[in-house]
Amino acid sequence: MDRVMLREGFGRNDQYLLPNGFRATAMGCVDGNAVARFCDEGEGCLLQSTQEEGHDTKSAVWVSNGRSDEPQEGCVEKGPMADVEEVCFTSTTLPRYHGTDWERCLFWRKSGVLVVMDRLTVKQPGRHVAACTWRSPRYARLTEGRRWETRTEEGVFSIASAEAPMSGGPYPVTEGRDGETARQVSPELRLTSPLDDDRFSAEAPWVLRQWKRLNAEAGQVVDFQNVLFRRDQQAERPNPVLVRPSDAVSVLKGASTCEGQTTEDLAVLIRGSRQFGGLAVEADSGWPRADELYLAGGRRLVIGEEVSVTSEAPVDLVLKRSSASLTGWIRAAVETEVMVGLPDLKAVRLGHTSVATSGNAVRLAVTPGTQVLHCRAGAGRVSDELDRQLTLAVAKQPHRNPDAAAARPTRGPRLPLRSVWTHDGLRGAGRRDRLEGAAP
């Protein structure tokens, strides 16, 4: 895959996101799977603006297994992608990346938030170091221990991590330049000062790096989850908060709608087939909220005991609450049969055809293409059940007290020191070093 362009529109202030798919060019850039540019309200929030090689200087994930001398792929692999009304989902993978497969999943609510889910699947067991890096063209700072923000001319662009503690904790906070530590609030979150030695940069960029060090087994998944959003400087709306139940599930609190309004309900972003509390999803991606549901490449959806959708072939599905009904559409690439179960189901219309119901269930014969779906059912009960299941599932997740000091990471047992080489003095005009075990 060469690259993906995500546009809200073609206006000057529309959101624009450019993930790069082609790893190597004549300029020598190594930026496969990196976000080359992200613009909002006519301002550049993330800009690559460099020809320095390596993912560690771009908005990407950098991985090292010590040697990192394996040849890398020239292009990333295209995974499932879907454009479903107000939301968009993409999945791209850089395979055989220093002993891992790096998948980057983008959950984008147009004119709203962008959730980035980076998943590293370890292929070669051993010690690895990974850093999720974000590059801003202007001054940035860490706030609240987990949010990185940079002020643009008319707004504030922020990146909130689902990993770092909410407050600073007992870690040192220092300022520096020329690559020294600018501010450190946790062992995993570090802000680097302007890269003055970057001769190819158009400005003095500031870089956020989120670190993870591990001794991983083959098949283990290491992930980074972040939410990106922009706010007007005078806005007093609450910022979105991202919670990480697992490596393929994100819970977004206070997500913005496409009109820029902030809601207080929960949104769950699911990659692949997952069970999350009373919510079960078998799909490429899912984005359920209390009043609306988005499903891309879906085969099965279960919400509690009363709501279910099953399909023989993958379908894209949108359902929104509208007074006493659920309205949306369903899209299929091939002819398939879809079973829908809803509480108090009275009538169903697929396209221009009314479909007979059997109790609280209906069987739909879906033809290739997109068809309008209207269900007269207990829409309020569906929304309440979805909201209840999401709330219960989130309540069962480990909770971090934002006022509690973060604990220092514990060190493993120290290995005994051993002699590597010895020096037995100068002889004549030269020097003689003798490696232990070598002949004198």
- The count of β-strands is 34
CATH topology of the largest domain: Beta-galactosidase, Chain A, domain 5
Q: Evaluate the radius of gyration.
A: 25 Å
H/I helix tally: 1
- At CATH level 2, the architecture of the largest domain is Distorted Sandwich
Low-confidence stretches: 164-187, 193-202, 255-260, 399-411, 428-440
Described by strand count, sense and barrel closure, the largest sheet is:
14 strands, antiparallel
Residue share in helices?
A: under 10%
CATH domain class name of the largest domain: Mainly Beta
What average pLDDT do the residues reach? 75
- State the end-to-end distance: 58 Å
Please characterize this protein's 3D structure.
The protein is mostly beta strands. The chain has 1 helix and 34 strands. The protein is globular and about 95 Å long.
Question: Which tags fit this structure?
Answer:
440 residues; mainly beta; Beta-galactosidase, Chain A, domain 5; Chondroitinase Ac, Chain A, domain 3; 14-stranded antiparallel β-sheet; nine-stranded antiparallel β-sheet; 34 strands; disordered C terminus
List the helices and strands and how they pair.
Blueprint: E1 6-7, E2 16-19, E3 35-40, E4 43-47, E5 61-64, E6 77-78, E7 82-84, E8 87-97, E9 100-109, E10 114-122, E11 126-136, E12 141-143, E13 147-151, E14 155-161, E15 181-184, E16 189-192, E17 206-216, E18 221-232, E19 241-246, E20 249-253, E21 266-271, E22 274-276, E23 279-282, E24 285-288, E25 292-303, E26 307-322, E27 325-332, E28 336-341, E29 347-350, E30 353-355, E31 361-366, E32 369-376, H1 379-395, E33 421-427, E34 430-435
